[in-house]
Amino acid sequence: MFWSFVIGLDGTVFGKLMIRDIELAYWETKMNRFDLSLDNRSLFAKLDSSMWIAAITRGNAEQRQQIADSLYTFLHSTPTRIPLSDVYDTTTNKAVYFTARPVLGGLSALIFFQINLHVLIKHTNDKRKTTFEINVAIKT
User: Fold this and answer.
1) How far is Cα 49 from Cα 76, in angstroms, rounded to an integer?
2) What is the pLDDT of residues 75-126, one digit of tens each?
């Protein structure tokens, strides 16, 4: 859903724009002190996934700030003294899995909207290969 906003479809890639609002309302019910609980099997959060969700709150600055504040609270007050963990418990604030992984691209998700990027995706599909070319430029 995030990328549909980045390429300018405003969330309509899945049919109706309402899907974003339904998703955001759902995630709001999963908010704990130290972030969104993203898994129905536990109270764990995933740092980068939370930022992807924050990024699609485009019209809801309060919800976006709530997510960002909870991430700050986790990072600032976690009792787990390890390099950045991207999976942690949203109620105890303790890191659970993963330490200093290079897969936290979602942390920059808000930047896509804040610097007003234009993304052009060109798709080529012939019998031998499928190619996606992505060009990113700052709108002026």
Assistant:
1) 19
2) 888 888 777 778 888 888 888 877 777 766 777 777 766 655 555 555 556 6
Residue range 35-84, pLDDT digits in tens: 777 777 778 888 888 888 888 776 678 888 888 888 888 888 888 877 77
> Beta strands 31-32 and 87-89: pairing type?
unpaired
Q: What is the rounded CA–CA span in Å between residue 60 and residue 73?
A: 20
| Domain limits, the chain | 2-109
The amino acid occupying position 71 is: L
Interatomic CA distance for residues 135 and 105, integer angstroms: 18
Q: Nearest CA to 83 among 55, 66, 104?
A: 104
Residue 22, classed as helix, strand or coil, is helix
